[in-house]
Amino acid sequence: MKKIIAAFDGLKFSESTRNYAIHLAKQTSAHLVGVFLEDFTYTSYKIYDLISSNRGSVGVERKKLDKKDVKLRGAAIQNFENACRNAGLECTIHKDRNVAIRELLHESIYADLLIIDSRETLTHYSEKTPTGFIRDLLTHVQCPVLVVPHLYKPIDKIVLLYDGEPSSVHAIKMFSYMLGSFKEYPMEVLSVNSPAKSLDLQDNKLMKEFMKRHFPKSGYTVIRGSPEVEIINYLKGEKDTSLVVLGAYRRGLVSRWFRPSMADSLMSGLKLPLFIAHNK
Fold this sequence. Notes:
It is built from ten helices and ten strands. It has 280 residues and is α/β, with parallel strands linked by helices.
């Protein structure tokens, strides 16, 4: 039995993460763990809220707000447990109370798949996607990650991004091993070649031989142009029920500074679930 972990901010509970996690756990007969990140440095209120309050001393007001946070986090856990129970799933709850990113990265060592909302920040503030928290997570995570949009839609098609590099094949392997139950879904391998090249897949024979063993019903689409432009434009034509598989997030800091990761571009430009896995 595989292990899926779903990461939550109990103060801003993501029903989308919950729904994707339950759907995939049922699909794969996996054990589901709800990881509730209760970072001791993070509360629902700001220090300014305490200072500006006219309702009593700062200490008294802080205790009231802390109790409110405890209730919010408890309600989020109860929501998750009830949803799992209603779906006929057993689940485990982890309450991680230290620094959130450090705790979640440690959890990922012992997981087969991590599911998280693309908007998670574990701060008071909203950020553009990909958020700083998601960037840090994807750079250092120890298992494949499914980054999901804020609104849940049942998955009914898989798009596999392939560029001839080992990292893209590795991501497809990880998807096959973890979510092989999707092999009966419509499946498309999408590749982008430079304008000077033909419309053949890179390593055409080897790739199709590999895909025949993992996803024999796959179709193939090869287009010309810049991958950063053409992939986004192509996927904008997909329904929001498609899931995209890709690798190659982990590059050096300097490289990412000048050329954002494809995952970053997809998260900011689309609202599709992304299955991301990279070579170490």
